[in-house]
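A quick aside before the break. I want you to see a complete sequence-to-structure record at least once, exactly as it would be stored in a machine-readable document. Don't worry about memorizing anything.
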Amino acid sequence: MIALLTGDIINSRELKDQNLWINPFKKLLRNWGQTPKQWEIFRGDSFQLEISDPQESLLAALQIKALIKSLPYPDETKRSSPVDVRMAIGIGNKTYNADRISESNGEAFVRSGEKFEQLKSEMITLAINSPWAEWNNEMNLYLKLAGIQMDSWSISSGELMSEMLSNPDRTQAEIGKLLHINQNSVSKRYKAANGEDILAMEKLFRKKLSQLL
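That is the input. The structure line, written in tokens, reads:
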């Protein structure tokens, strides 16, 4: 089984220079493989990403979310940016392996695509579709509640969570050095972002999924 993330960048046209999001986004995606085999950006601001281990898929989605929310916005008077990301995680088999991920197919691709089409009408930005209906319902409730917080992350919260999620073992002091802020500021941002709850949700996702795979 694999996980397939299907997503798009919301309000990407708000950024006059598209490289502001495309370049750091491509750099992040390279952590999971090469384009166009493992990931691909198409139609300007849509993308697909294959995660070979489904247990890593939510962490990948959270890292993408944090990166996009951390992007600098031209209007410096705004603490948060209107630019966001919408993603659906599909879990299942991959039955056709093409040279381009957009041409590959299988259960994971179908589930991801179906859920992605529902995101707008459900007014949510992150959801999961797997073969296990009961688990889907439970995790999607958690993601809906977490999304209320994550969708409103400030740019500084996005920066902090991006560093935190890229290496959860880092201490707050180490993150403070990377962001050039003191440890007290790190603690305040972490609390404001509900970082502890977000990481706990990711661990729960990983634990429950490991029992199903």
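Two observations worth writing down. The domain at 2-211 is CATH 3.30.70 (Alpha-Beta Plaits). The chain has eight helices and five strands. We'll return to this after the break.
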